[in-house]
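Hey L., structure's done. Input below.
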Amino acid sequence: MPPFSDIIGFIGVAANVGWPFFRSRTWMLLGQAFGAFLFALHYALISAPTAALLLTTAGLQALLAIPLGDRSNFRLLYLATIPVIGGIMAFSWTGVESLFASLGLALISLGRYQLKVIPFRALLVACIPMWLVHNLIVGSVPGLVSDALSFSSGLWMLIVTIRQERGRAPASPSSAG
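Output:
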């Protein structure tokens, strides 16, 4: 039987692999929050405190990001969570892995702040190499699996979304016969 930390981590993997396939920003954010809270528990159980605190913050950010498009006052509240990343890194510093986890969350945070799906997806794909380095250092097998699968599914859905947006774009004067 795998350790409880790995079981929780692999449930988090399922959440992280699933959310990129949601089409709406709200459902993507709910999926991210669920995965973040599961990985926060996983990292706490394997003694990776920076990642545990950052993923708790990430889950809360994902929930706070949902109303960004509808309520402008939430934009300031959401932005107020970004400096917390540096504070968490300083408070829970365990080495260079803390830096990479913090950089990963900073990119995710910028992604969640986006109201359009393409920049949102692009920044989320861009954060994965940071988490990959972190997970190699702390030895998180579920984290590494999540990185590989999330990168693949996230990149795929980014490409699909870009193609769909191009199909909806009005024809430019140079493309008309």
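DSSP finds eight helices and no strands in the chain. Residues 15 and 54 are 17 Å apart (CA to CA).

-- N.
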